[in-house]
Amino acid sequence: MRNTVLLAALAVVLAGCGKQGAQLGQGGSVVSGSAGPAGAQSAARELQKCEAPVATLALVENPNGYTMAGGYALPSSPLPLVRLLAQQSGCFRVVDRAAGLKAVIKEQELKDAGVLRQQGSTVAKGKGYEAQYSLTPSLTFSEQDAGRQLGGIMASIPVLNKLVGAAEHVKLKEAQVALLLTDNETTEQVAAATGSVQVTDLGMGGMMLGKLGGAAGAGWSNSNEGKVIAAAFLDAHNHLVTQLRMLQAKELPTPVATKPGKS
C-alpha cells in the first residue's frame, strides 16, 4: 500500500508536466487502430486473432441495456468498440445491422421512388449477406471511492501529508463484460466469454495505475471510464477467440473487391 501511495503521488506531480499541443495517435484506450481490406492496423499487441474468418457476424444490442453508473458522458452503446475488435481479430466478416443497414434501406427506397438512376445502379434487392452468427455484449461499470482511505494513510507520512487533498480524487474503476455468441441457423449459444479489469484512477490529469496501454479507441478514449470498459472488452474478446478457433468454418460469400496487390 505504501508503494501505491508513492506511485500515486508521483503520478499527480507528473500529470502537470505533459507537453503542449496535439499529438495524433497518442492517449486513448487499448482498443486502437483500424480494420479493413488492409488488415488490422495499429491494433493492440494483446489482441488475439484467427488465421481466417469462420463466418459472417452481426453485433446485436443487449436488450437489457448497459449498466454505467454516473454521468460519464460515455457513448450509449459499446457495439462500435466490439465491432472493431471483431473485425481486427479476423475471426469473422462483420455485417452491419445498425446505422449502415438503415442507410442501405434508404438507398433502396430512393431508387424505388425514382430518385436514383435505374440503369447501372449498384443498389439492388437481394444482394445483402446474411449474418451466420450474432454477438451480444453485456456491460457493468462501477466506481468505488478510495480517496478517504488513501488520504488517511498519506496523512501519517511526513513527506506525503501535504498531498492528502489530492488523494480525495482517487477512485477504483472496474468494468465487467460478457460476449455471447449465437448460431443464427440453430439458435444455439455456441460460445460465451467474460472479461474484467480494475484500475486506480488518480483523478488529477486523467492518469491511471493499472494494466491499460495507449492508443485511440472507437469513441471511448475521452475518459478513464471508457478506457476501463475498452480494456474489459479486449479481455473478453481474447477469451472468446480461444473458442472461435474450434468452430468449423461456414461457407462465406464472395468478398468485396480490392485493388491488386503490389509486386
UniProtKB/TrEMBL annotation:
PROSITE patterns: PROKAR_LIPOPROTEIN (PS51257)
Top-level taxonomic group: Bacteria
A GO CC term assigned to this protein in UniProt: outer membrane-bounded periplasmic space
Protein name as it appears in the record: CsgG/HfaB family protein
